[in-house]
Write a structure and sequence with these properties.
The complex is a heterodimer of chains A (about 475) and B (about 250). Chain A is an alpha/beta fold and about 475 residues long. Chain A contains 14 helices and 19 strands. In chain A, strands 1, 2, 4, 6, 7, 9, 11, 12, 14, 16 and 18 form an 11-stranded mixed beta sheet that branches. In chain A, helix 2 packs antiparallel against helix 3, helix 3 runs antiparallel to helix 10 and helix 12 crosses helix 14. In chain B, the strands form 2 sheets. A 6-stranded mixed beta sheet of chain B has the order 6-7-8-3-9-10, sandwiched between helices. Chain B has a 4-stranded antiparallel beta sheet with strand order 2-1-4-5. Chain B contains 9 helices and 10 strands. Chain B is α/β, with parallel strands linked by helices and about 250 residues long. Classes of the chains: A alpha/beta (about 475), B alpha/beta (about 250). Bound molecules: adenosine-5'-diphosphate and magnesium ion.
């Protein structure tokens, strides 16, 4: 407990030092979207001509596309002309001190064991002084630079490393891939860029959370991670603290590229505002995440713990192009109250001897609806390929739902896909057994649910796993009487 | 003051009355056996005492350490030292046995105002207790009861008891599923845990366990009522004559 708190504190302290500070200019566009708005965004960011063209092309695609209706989620129509597509990054509402913060929010922070200073920051209290130890050139950033690793905001990457961005942007998720990806490509605000050169193993976990301004990257985040031949990186996205945002629609795109023998591990904890107990408010999280195992023996692993958002629509996928490449997807998705999640993965086997593993744990409570949607496709030339999928659903209560939509297409005779699925209810017997041993109902539910998710938590970096476990408890609070 | 006083306890499940007025007094340091044929209400009694929600008490009273037991939540009863070794122990997939026990023990210690045990002290306690029931240490790192054989589950229940050191233990059919060797070791474990500071209620429909754990008192439960109580000899007589004997006796007595 203490060590992990310290770790967070340490990281948080380090964070500012890395100097991921974007220009703070108070400015925004009027609501609505047209080509002029896109030109404005691009100009504001001083982007090169090719990127403006790319955005415009994406926009024109988007105009011709239709919002997908196939996910198993319900929400009122989104008015895309009511959205403000650019507003200069600003700190969240500044409160004078912690006593002005919603006590409910503070209670949650307490439960998650977030240190006070950080609570203040997360809640939008003016605490810049805390982070303002302007020793910008830290050993951390130096160390990464020495190794040739680039880790910076997307905007900075466009300015400093335009050739790399140009080479890989859209190479995994084409601008016209789907409705929300096209929208993102047209208007993306900021995000992270990460490049690990040939043969380099990144010596530390890279994390967006530890960049203060990450909280302001807005609704249309863009992330690109490239691992060259033999490179390795583990990347953490998000944080367990509840994130509030006045923007309802979030449509991010994440692209990963792994060349020969490279490995990318991408872990996410998503805890955006889920809406209130009656289902009012909450974020729509419509994300496109895809990795490309471009090289032989490359490996991409997605691990996600999704507890937030009113609606989650997300399928972190892997294109297994290189021979012997490996794709993995480990997921915990929790829905409570009126949350809806339609999430899963797509494993596309193209190279020979490619392997994929899918472990999905869906937990539904309250009136929550949780769908797993997965596609395992083995192309004709993907001989001797293997997939193993396991989709388990756990129901807490009888007003919630779990659904699985597994699709398997094997187009050669030497490959095999194996799928297992279970649905279980959290048992009165299990809870009583725990209580008989002295545990409270809350601890009992926590323990049973965490046990259910163990295989996935196992894949998370240590300190992230501990946080994720606590997060699960908080998310399901009060779901079993 | 008695440790446990059950007075005229009536309880029903789904609207059917199963227990029709149980009276039972257990003092500290005593071992009681409750015997009775299948379906006579033994597990119901154990469940009512542990606080299982499906059982509704319609009449009567239970005092535990002088306090109204029926007012207490199941976890509070457990923290106050009441332990039930389940007839059918429950599996908790993915939750490590030792992790589970640590949470349980610390919840109990916290309730008592004691400090929580740290990982190292706890582990040495666990190792010591595994010896008591001759349990392989590999069971510590397996998920609670998951994939355990029937006998292993029962042994694990007694292991939990050894670690949590309850005041009042209720062992519900702990002998079923145990082969003769396991029965001996588990009984030895229970005997070692027996002390002037605690009490045990052994629930069984089978006399053989009582050869190893010798009770101070034996009660015969038939159709939801205790029809006969006596010393350890009663168990032997029951074994010889069967439950029909008590049934007939009660009929004559009426
Ligand atoms: N949940 C339940 N619903 C309905 N009947 C029950 C339930 N639990 C126990 N009973 C009934 O109560 C009676 C006593 O059961 P039980 O206490 O388990 O007996 P024993 O442990 O002595 O074998 C039996 O007739 C049994 O069928
Ligand atoms: Mg029984």
């Amino acid at each position: 407990m203490n060590t992990e708190t310290n770790a967070i504190e340490q990281f948080a302290d380090q964070e500012y030092k890395y100097g991921f500070v974007t220009d703070i200019e108070a400015d925004s566009t009027p609501a609505g979207l047209n080509e002029n708005i896109i030109r404005f965004i691009s100009a504001k960011k001083q982007e090169p001509e090719w990127l403006l063209e790319w955005r415009l092309k994406s926009y024109r695609h988007w105009l011709k596309m239709e919002e997908p209706r196939w996910p198993n989620v319900k929400y009122p129509p989104i008015d895309y002309q009511a959205i403000v597509y650019y507003s200069a990054p600003k700190r969240k509402t500044e409160l004078k001190d912690i006593s002005e913060v919603d006590p409910e929010l503070l209670r949650t922070y307490e439960k998650l064991g977030i240190p006070l200073r950080e609570q203040e920051w997360l809640a939008g209290v003016a605490v810049d002084a805390v982070f303002d130890s302007v020793s910008v050139a830290t050993t951390f950033k130096e160390k990464l630079r020495e190794l040739g690793i680039i880790f910076c905001s997307f905007s900075e990457a466009v300015r400093e490393h335009p050739d790399l961005v140009r080479k890989y942007l859209g190479s995994v998720v084409p601008a016209n891939d789907n409705y929300f990806a096209a929208l993102n490509s047209a208007v993306f605000s900021d995000g992270s860029f990460c490049f690990i050169p040939k043969g380099v193993r990144c010596p530390m976990e890279l994390s967006t959370y530890f960049r203060i301004n990450a909280a302001d990257t807005g609704q249309f985040e863009r992330t690109l991670i490239v691992a060259e031949e033999g490179a390795q990186v583990s990347y953490l996205e998000g944080c367990t603290a509840p994130m509030r945002d006045k923007n309802q629609l979030h449509a991010a795109v994440v692209e990963l590229v792994a060349l020969d023998n490279a490995r990318i591990k991408y872990s996410t904890v998503q805890n955006w505002y889920p809406g209130d107990k009656e289902g009012r408010g909450g974020i729509y999280n419509f994300v496109t995440k895809r990795g490309k195992c471009a090289g032989v023996n490359s490996k991409i692993s997605w691990t996600q713990v999704e507890t937030g958002s009113a609606i989650t629509w997300k399928y972190p996928s892997v294109l297994l192009i290189g021979d012997n490449s490996v794709g993995e997807f480990y997921s915990v998705a929790v829905v409570n109250n009126y949350q809806q999640a339609d999430t899963g993965t797509k494993m596309t086997h193209i190279g020979k001897n490619t392997k994929s593993t899918i472990v999905s744990k869906g937990i539904s409570a309250g009136h929550g609806q949780n769908s797993y949607r997965g596609l395992v496709e083995m192309k004709k030339n993907a001989t001797n390929s293997r997939n193993y999928s396991q989709c388990d659903s756990l129901l807490l209560g009888d007003k919630c739902g779990a659904h699985t939509f597994p699709y398997i297409e094997v187009k050669n005779t030497s490959s095999k896909a194996e799928h297992e699925a279970t649905t279980s209810k959290i048992g009165e017997d299990q809870i009583f057994y725990c209580k008989q041993r002295g545990l409270s109902t809350e601890d009992a539910v926590n323990m049973i649910v965490n046990g259910f998710c163990r295989e996935v938590f196992h894949e998370l970096p240590m300190e992230f796993a501990v946080e994720a476990q606590k997060l699960l408890g908080v998310s399901l609070e009060g779901s079993v009487g | 003051m008695s440790l446990l006083e059950v007075k005229n306890l009536h309880a029903s499940v789904n609207g059917n009355e199963i227990l029709h007025g149980i009276n039972l007094t257990v003092n500290i340091g005593e071992v009681h056996a409750i015997m009775g044929p299948n379906g006579s209400g033994k597990s119901t009694l154990a469940g009512v005492l542990a606080g299982r929600e499906a059982y509704i008490v319609t009449e009567g009273q239970v005092l535990y350490q002088g306090k109204d037991l029926l007012e207490m939540d199941p976890e509070e009863r457990a923290r106050e030292g009441l332990f039930l070794a389940f007839q059918y122990p429950v599996e908790i997939p993915g939750v490590n046995n030792s992790y589970f026990l640590k949470a349980a023990l610390n919840a109990i210690r916290k309730h008592k105002g004691l400090e929580e045990l740290d990982a190292i002290d706890f582990l040495s306690l666990l190792k010591q207790k595994t010896k008591l029931v001759d349990m392989n240490e590999s069971f510590l790192n397996r998920p609670v009861n998951e994939g355990f054989s029937g006998g292993e589950k029962k042994r694990n229940e007694i292991f939990h008891m050894a670690v949590l050191e309850p005041k009042l233990s209720i062992l519900d059919e702990t002998d079923s599923g145990l082969d003769i060797d396991a029965l001996k070791t588990v009984s030895e474990g229970v005997n070692k845990l027996r002390s002037k500071e605690n009490a045990t209620i052994i629930v069984t429909h089978y006399q053989r366990l009582l050869n190893y754990i010798v009770p101070d008192f034996v009660h015969v439960l038939v159709d939801g009522i205790i029809v006969k109580s006596g010393g350890k000899d009663l168990a032997i007589k029951l074994e010889e004559l069967g439950y029909d004997w008590v049934r007939e006796e009660t009929v004559h007595a009426v």
